[in-house]
Amino acid sequence: MLRFHRRRLAACSVALAAALAVSACGSKTGESDTTGGVTADTSGDTVKVGLLNSLSGTMAISEVTVRDAIMLAVEEINAAGGVLGKKLAPVGEDGASDWPTFAEKAEKLIKVDRVAAVFGCWTSASRKAVKPVFEENKALLFYPVQYEGLEQSPYIFYTGATTNQQIVPGLDYLKAQGKKSVYLVGSDYVFPRTANKIIKAYAEANGLKVLGEDYAPLGSTEFGTIVNKVKASKAEAVFNTLNGDSNVAFFKEYKSAGLTAASMPVVSVSIAEEEVKSIGTQYLSGQLTAWNYYQTTTGAANDKFVKAYKAKFGADKPTSDPMEAAYVSVYLWKAMVEKAGSFDVEKVKGASNGVTFEAPEGLVTIDGATQHIHKTARIGKIGDDGLITEVWNSGGPVKPDPYLKGYPWATGLS
Amino acid sequence: MTVILGQLFTGVSIGAVLLLIALGLALTFGQMNVINMAHGEFIMAGAYTTYVLQQTITDAGLSLLVALPVAFAVAGAMGVLLEWALIRRLYTRPLDTLLVTWGVSLMLQQLARDVFGAPNVQTKAPDLLTESTSLGADLSIANSRLFILGLVVLAVAALTAALKFTPLGRRIRAVVQNRDLAAVSGIPTGRVDRLTFFIGSGLAGVAGVALTLLGPIGPTMGTNIIIDAFLVVVVGGIGQLKGSVIVAFVLGMLQAMVEYLTTLSVAKVIVFVAIVAFLQWRPQGLFTLRTRSLA
Predict the structure, then answer these.
(1) Recorded GO terms, molecular function (chain B) (predicted)?
(2) Is A1 a residue whose pLDDT tops 50?
(3) d(Cα A366, Cα A354) in Å, to the nearest integer?
(4) Mean pLDDT of the B147-156 span
(5) Residue B39: predicted pLDDT
(6) Which residue of A has its CA nearest to B1?
């Protein structure tokens, strides 16, 4: 046994030495390494970028659409001449809906492929799994999905909404509609529990009554009792942080209990166009969602985006908020690189503050301090055709505030 | 008061769903001692059958009615195929049936993913079944749940009658009580096994049709409910239809009441603790089968 271990150890060290030698050779032709991290290989006519999404497993449904949107941006950028005169060469890896796999593949993209930046991840669990990998290797990750906030990594750019750009505006909207009480329904894991903590703090400060709070295990499909409780509470609205499949069962039960968007509206933060399609509009018609982008968002940039996406992936494929944020992240990275005049991670990061892009959702600007972006908040109503139309927006981009420092009621949350 | 009545009905309807998914398993696991992990995928097959039928029959009500017998036949045929191809070689090795059918279950899930795609699909329920029946001011009962309750009553009645009064039923009971003796008496045990599998798997298909009214249709929907089905059969007493019926409704009621007072996660824990405690007290389940078998 011991001998076997030693032999394996020897083999590993040889492999490691070889890898180091190779990467040392590479960096001679690449850019100089100013930071001690792994440097991207930019010696040729192309520069590699990493795509890290679940192409298999339970998250594939959502993450494949994000990968498609990233590919679209990469192709458009290449067709327009690339970045700093170099074409982008995408390297795709499958995270397989498994967090350790995400970490492993991130390491591979950084060290073996030596990509200049990685785009991807969806669940908070996958992001938390790769975070130390990017930090150790001083490499860049662009994360495109709305999340629970309370995080900031020097090597991650967050292009999805943080809580003050999605959940807080959702609550503001309910308050503006004169709603005095809400019921909280969510899946039992980190995002809904954190979100509901924030919602309760908001409610207390804003005279909104939280009449109840219920969680269902991920994948749970038995909502009889929860819907009975919601109904009996006579709340004026429901704030829904359920994820995935559970939404189908929840909305079916909701409708058959005789509850409607008119009698007790539900605001959801995890249902976008793709999910609306799979839940069924007969159950969702008239219900509300909080996001930063809808397929129906007006503007020339979005017309172009929707048209290009449908031409490439099919006319029946809707575009959604996380897809848009992923698409935007590639363009933001390009703008940062061009501003820095270099692919070097530290220089790119240094150039990030104030970089803007005319995104499909409207103008977005990077906030260099938090590495989140200024985004317009939007409340939408689900229509009979499965599309979501905006009923309210914040009037302009909202400054990202991942730790909710600008909200007095939120002190002590993090 | 209305809240309690509402919860009572929720309990009954949870019980009905539990029983519907456990009924087929009670037959194949209970009566034949085969641990069929692919039972959940037969339920999935029934659900996808409903989906496929709705692509051709656009009237939601009609397609649901057609789906019931067709799903029974489709899932039943899959059961027969599984029995013929694999399980009949493993009748004396129940633990091996677990492994083999688990493999089959994974294959069927992947097959569904390849044929229908990874995203969940939906069926359109007839409008009547998405509404609710009002019984007084605040009390209303979901029509889809009433429909499932009716379906369960019908299925249990039909199954009981078939087991009690038909020649096939007598043969099934004979094979269950003592396979060797039944074979010696001239009962074609192989054919009886296959028919039992057809009925048991067919009932899973019917459960699949019913579940489309409540939740999503997806490749993994079977794995989410198979555990509950096994619990009902084991606690009820293996080989006892009566036990499954009682236990399904008791568990449904317990779940609904505890959940109302606490939360869904806590209720799940308490129900599991209750089951474990019960099985400590009565490892053989609620009812036991009197058998002449020596084994």
Answers:
(1) transmembrane transporter activity
(2) no
(3) 5
(4) 94
(5) 94
(6) A232
| Residues A55-66: tens digit of each pLDDT | 887 777 789 899
Q: CB–CB of A215/B265 below 8 Å?
A: yes
Q: pLDDT tens digit string along A230-239? A: 999 999 999 9
Instruction: Over range A143-148, report the average pLDDT.
Output: 94
Residue ranges of the alpha helices (H) in A112-188? 124-137, 167-176
State the count of interchain CB pairs (< 8 A) between A and B: 104
Q: What is the CATH number of domain A46-161+299-374?
A: 3.40.50.2300
Cβ count within 10 A of residue B261: 12
- Please indicate whether the domains covering A46-161+299-374 and A164-296+378-410 agree at the CATH topology level: yes
How many CA atoms lie within 13 Å of B35's alpha carbon, on the beta-carbon side? 15
User: Of A170-184, A279-293, B116-130, which range is least confident?
Assistant: B116-130
Instruction: Tell me the residue length of chain B.
Output: 295
- Cα separation, A187 vs A240, whole angstroms: 9
Q: Nearest-CA distance from B219 to chain A in Å?
A: 10
Would strands A388-398 and A372-382 be described as parallel, antiparallel, or unpaired? antiparallel
| B143 lies within 8 A of chain A by CB | yes
* CATH of the domain spanning A164-296+378-410: 3.40.50.2300
Q: Is B10 on the interface with A (CB under 8 A)?
A: yes
User: What is d(CA A212, CA A210) in angstroms, rounded to the nearest whole number?
Assistant: 6
**Full-model pTM:** 0.84
What pLDDT band is residue A139 in, cutting at 50, 70 and 90?
A: very high
SS3 A309: helix
User: Token pair for residue B190?
Assistant: 């192989």
Mean pLDDT of chain B: 89
Contact flag B264-A248 (C-beta cutoff 8 Å): no
**Percentage of the residues of chain A whose pLDDT score is greater than 90:** 72
Within 8 A by CB and 6+ apart from A166, the residues are A146, A269, A290, A291, A292, A377
Q: Where do the domains of chain A lie?
A: 46-161+299-374, 164-296+378-410
Determine the angle formed by the axes of helices B189-211 and B39-56, rounding to 10 degrees: 60
Whole-angstrom Cα distance, residue A279 to residue A249? 9
Mutate to test the interface with B, among A53, A58, A252, A384 (most CBs of B within 10 A): A252
Closest-CA distance of chain A to residue B36, Å: 22
| DSSP for A10-58, written as a single string | HHHHHHHHHHHHHHHHHHHHS---SSSSPPP---SSEEEEEEEE-SSST
Contacts of B10 in chain A (CB under 8 A): 224-225, 228
Contact partners, residue B171, CB within 8 Å, separation at least 6: B182, B187, B192
